[in-house]
Design a protein that fits this description.
This protein is an alpha/beta fold. 38% of the residues lie in helices and 21% in strands. The N terminus is likely disordered.
């Protein structure tokens, strides 16, 4: 990487990005640099939105090469940011809170003090989908069944722990627990090797659309009283609208948390400012990448600080009168 190791790049390379963003003349004088956008599995929502961001940024910053990296999502992304092995990342807001305060149970042995927030983007719906053949209709019906709860210590798996506990269950109550990404979970359900999958993602996630087009499904309700038992402000009740998935003919209550874009303290103020600004100025391109982006809006909620707001992002929100 132009003679720089990854740690050096995390500090110096984005100086090049800032130059590319802020000054055409200085940008031409800079050698090409690389920025890694950390996403999630390719069948989720983070990955296509990360590709859209890379295209938006790439057009505005031709001297910079943007790479989209598929990962296990939230927890892995935040650990990579802390280590300077990525410059911008998608994450769930609840995982971001846990990373900032340090929560060893979900993969953060100590507080990740370098994390900075750029924007809160769209809500993540915790979607529990069972095969109709399994007979599962309620959370209680999951007892003794085979379920996938997402990749280990991913945002989805962290959500699964919270919902399962609030429902008065534990992983020990299931016949089998698989820790698999979205697409692999769906494949096992198609092959009748799993009864249910819990996936935390934007509405209309590709993996669940695929599942619903292949087998008859039941979208399992998460009642408001269960959501209240989670006891964390980042979780709230919501509804999966009817016909979000094939065969889902009625609204289904569930629980949502948020999604955010994060970065780290080594990213320059100008780079953070431009990355935040460019996303909000190109929301149509984001919406074209995935329907979940229709819920991204420039508002005070976008500037919510689940981690310290990066000074560059703060400058953008101040210009828009949102702080």
């Amino acid at each position: 990487m132009d003679g720089l190791n990854r740690r050096q790049f995390g500090i110096l390379g984005l100086g090049g990005v800032a130059a590319a963003m802020g000054s055409t003349r200085s940008a031409r004088a800079q050698a090409p640099r690389f920025v890694t956008i950390l996403t999630g599995g390719t069948s989720g929502v983070y990955y296509p939105l990360g590709v859209a961001l890379s295209q938006i940024y790439g057009k505005a910053m031709p001297e910079t090469k943007f790479t989209v990296q598929a990962t296990k999502a939230s927890a892995e992304n935040l650990n990579l940011l802390q280590a300077g092995r990525g410059e911008i990342a998608f994450t769930q807001t609840d995982t971001l809170v846990q990373a900032v305060r340090g929560d060893a149970e979900v993969g953060f042995a100590k507080p990740l003090d370098k994390l900075r927030s750029l924007a809160v983007i769209y809500p993540n719906y915790i979607q529990i989908v069972a095969s109709k053949a399994s007979g599962i209709k309620t959370l209680a019906d999951l007892k003794g069944k085979r379920i996938s709860v997402g990749a280990p210590k991913s945002g989805t798996e962290i959500n699964a722990r919270a919902v399962v506990k609030a429902a008065g269950l534990s992983y020990a109550d299931f016949e089998k627990v698989e820790y698999l990404p979205f697409a692999e979970s769906v494949d096992l359900m198609k092959n009748q090797q799993l009864d249910a999958t819990l996936q935390s993602a934007g509405l209309g996630v590709a993996s669940l659309r695929d599942l619903a087009s292949s087998i008859d499904i039941t979208v399992v309700s998460v009642p408001a009283e269960t959501v209240a038992k989670i006891g964390e402000a980042v979780y709230r009740s919501a509804v999966i609208p009817a016909n979000t998935y094939n065969g889902q003919t009625a609204d289904v209550p569930t629980v949502v948390t948020g999604n955010a874009l994060a970065t780290h303290a080594g990213v320059s103020d100008e780079a953070a400012y431009q990355m935040t600004k460019l996303m909000f100025e190109n929301l149509e391109a984001m919406k074209s990448a995935h329907a979940a982006a229709k819920q991204i809006a420039l508002s005070k909620d976008a500037a919510a600080e689940f981690a310290p707001l990066h000074p560059g992002a703060k400058r953008f929100y101040q210009e828009k009168g949102l702080l």
